[in-house]
Amino acid sequence: MLHLRAVCPPEQTASALELLRAHAGTAHLIVHRGAAVAPEGDLIEADVAREAADEIVDALCALHLDRTGGITLEALDTALSDAADAAEEAAPGEGADAVVWQELLGRTGEESRWTATFQAFLAIACLLAATGVLTDSPVTVVGAMVVGPEFGPLAAIAVGAVLRRWDLVRRAATALAVGFPVSMVITGVVVLLGSVFGVFEPGTIADNHDVDFIYQVGAASFVVALLAGAAGMLAMTSAKSAALVGVFISVTTVPAAGYAMVAAVAGRWDRAGYSVLQLFVNLIGIVLAAAIVLILRRRKQRSGALLRPLSRG
């Protein structure tokens, strides 16, 4: 279940209440007359089944509550109520399979920005990957995969492209276009300084075969990126967010960026070039698969909406 709060101008309250009361996926409908201060109006609260949330939010937006008032959603971990059970039973589909598009837009929009925190995580991840390459440690490389924050902007690009939110696409693309080069430069400088002071020996990568998979780009790399992108978007659009960890440790994005800089410092430009290619192959594959998943889920959700009534009947 999701808890919905809507700040509503008094003249729209009756319409909003009628809409929510009529929908089978709504429970625990409450109205606080005159409770909203900024903007002024009434506060409407309701618990809605996740599979009905997107339809309900769209209907409230059709009343322009997103402009004249405000609509918020938050997840409910526990709801002990026969009315809530009945709403979930009456709402078509399964909650874990439902996509709440406004929630998805908000989530990916928040994770798509180039910020100091995003840059710090990406730089640390690239440094971890470089350390794993230098020490021939696949475990450290996997740790770098988990730390890397790049899936957020990649998912945002897919969501923005499918929903035609080009502002989201530009913001996410900027985060990647700035974040990766800056992180790679930082990594290169650290590796170079480490080699000067005898902390690292970049030339050892010639014998570090346990991490050769990072720069060995091929058809399998693209297939893995497609599968990871599909799994990642399924996790983001459902209640299976724990699966994202598996996505993080499936793709060779951050490791490729780290390996490229180690190889460059070592003078192995062939491996550096292949690593950069590996990075781009994975980035493109993830976005492509994520977009395909979104298109298919949106088409399925729209076709389902055409076949079911809005009313409780």
From TrEMBL:
Is rRNA-binding one of the keywords? no
UniProt-listed Pfam families: DUF389 (PF04087)
Give TM regions: 114-135, 141-163, 175-193, 213-235, 242-266, 272-296
* Keywords carried by this UniProt record: Membrane, Transmembrane, Transmembrane helix
Record-linked InterPro entries: DUF389
Q: What is this protein called?
A: DUF389 domain-containing protein
Its lineage opens with: Bacteria, Bacillati, Actinomycetota, Actinomycetes, Pseudonocardiales
